[in-house]
């Protein structure tokens, strides 16, 4: 019932977002078609990976940042909290709309866009489509890992949406950049304290993974067990933690 009400109240915004995504996908397909040279007879599916990642991440971030726009105005906030549904149902409903629904719709739009590009290229430029799905992702970074990364991006914007209700996407994006740069500078500070003058340059490190020096042992990499521990925390602890924090943030707003 909550999902039905949410969709009925915001169906115009959802239809507009879907239309814009589909228009962007078809527009990109047309640009790619007109830039396809006559001597390019093979179209590899893996070549579509960069725009696929960019558009998917953008769509996920935009919709997740709008999760709690109802809290921006007093009337809509009262309607949101007086609705006979638990906070868990409301947060879960927003997650289903902004991640599950968005993922399904995005892939449908991406499929339509690619089919448009394929039809035009095959019909008018005699191109051949190569379905090299195995080249889309690295064996150690599978599509499941990519979805986990998108889920983490969604969780960050979903949590940020509990703080910002107007112009939420640029505000959350800016705060996320500040947070990531803060982690980077923290890592640089720790690396300079530990390795001092032996660093190749003051910034030559991969945050929390490796440090590059001018010594005989050029690079120092974190132990495998620590790397796996960090990866486990990022994959299975950080994302649920952001969900839980989002739930309690909504509870705080209800009390206020």
Automatic annotation (TrEMBL):
Q: Does the keyword Ligase apply?
A: no
Q: State the UniProt keywords alphabetically.
A: Membrane, Transmembrane, Transmembrane helix
Q: Which domain of life is it from?
A: Bacteria
Coiled coil regions, renumbered to chain: none
UniProt source species: Chitinophaga jiangningensis
TM spans, by residue?
A: 12-32, 52-71, 91-114, 143-165, 172-195, 231-250
Name of the molecule in the record: ABC-2 family transporter protein
């Amino acid at each position: 019932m909550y999902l039905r009400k949410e969709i009925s109240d915001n169906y115009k915004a959802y239809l507009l977002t879907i239309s814009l995504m589909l228009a962007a996908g078809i527009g990109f397909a047309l640009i790619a078609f007109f830039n396809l040279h006559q001597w390019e007879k093979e179209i590899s599916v893996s070549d579509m990976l960069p725009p696929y990642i960019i558009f998917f991440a953008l769509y996920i971030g935009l919709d997740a940042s709008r999760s709690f726009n109802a809290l921006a105005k007093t009337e809509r906030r009262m309607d949101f909290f007086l609705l006979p549904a638990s906070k868990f149902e409301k947060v879960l409903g927003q997650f289903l709309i902004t991640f599950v629904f968005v993922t399904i719709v995005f892939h449908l739009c991406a499929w339509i866009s690619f089919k448009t590009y394929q039809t035009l290229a095959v019909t008018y430029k005699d191109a051949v489509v190569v379905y090299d799905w195995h080249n889309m992702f690295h064996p150690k970074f599978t599509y499941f890992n990519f979805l986990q990364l998108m889920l983490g991006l969604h969780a960050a914007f979903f949590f940020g949406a509990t703080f910002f209700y107007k112009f939420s996407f640029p505000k959350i994006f800016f705060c996320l950049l500040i947070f990531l740069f803060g982690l980077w500078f923290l890592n640089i500070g720790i690396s300079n304290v530990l390795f001092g003058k032996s660093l190749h340059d003051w910034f030559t490190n991969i945050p929390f993974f490796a440090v590059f020096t001018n010594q005989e042992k050029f690079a120092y990499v974190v132990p495998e067990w620590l790397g796996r521990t960090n990866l486990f925390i990022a994959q299975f602890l950080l994302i649920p933690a952001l969900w839980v924090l989002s739930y309690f943030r909504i509870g705080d707003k209800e009390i206020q």
